[in-house]
Amino acid sequence: MIKKILVSFLMLFSLISANDDFIDSYYSSIGERLSEWIPVGENEKATLNIFIDENGAFDYEFIKKANSEEFNNSLKNFLEKQKKIKYPVYKNKKIKIKTDFESEKK
Fold first, then answer.
1. What stretches of the chain adopt beta strand conformation (E)?
2. CB count, 10 Å around CB of 4?
3. Mind listing the pLDDT tens digit for each residue in 50-97?
4. Domain extents for the chain?
5. Angle at Cα 33 formed by Cα 32 and Cα 36, nearest 5°?
6. Global pTM?
């Protein structure tokens, strides 16, 4: 399910910057990294802001947590590991991406 959500924000940025191939590949790269997380539970959803600074440092904040602590803890553990990985930089700017992480719906 996460891949579907990330594709949505990728499409949004593609529409905004249709003439910028770099932004397409940049957000695709972010989406690929975040799609490595395997959701737990069913019918859960968390909304987050993802931040990548001009040095490639990753950070995040929960806007709205899921109802399941197992889901939230799994996501948090994954995102904490992402902080140790240098992310790609976009034109030496700080980037903020609002996105949803969801488990399968039943």
1. 45-52, 58-64, 95-102
2. 10
3. 999 999 999 999 999 999 999 999 999 999 999 999 999 888 888 888
4. 2-102
5. 90
6. 0.78
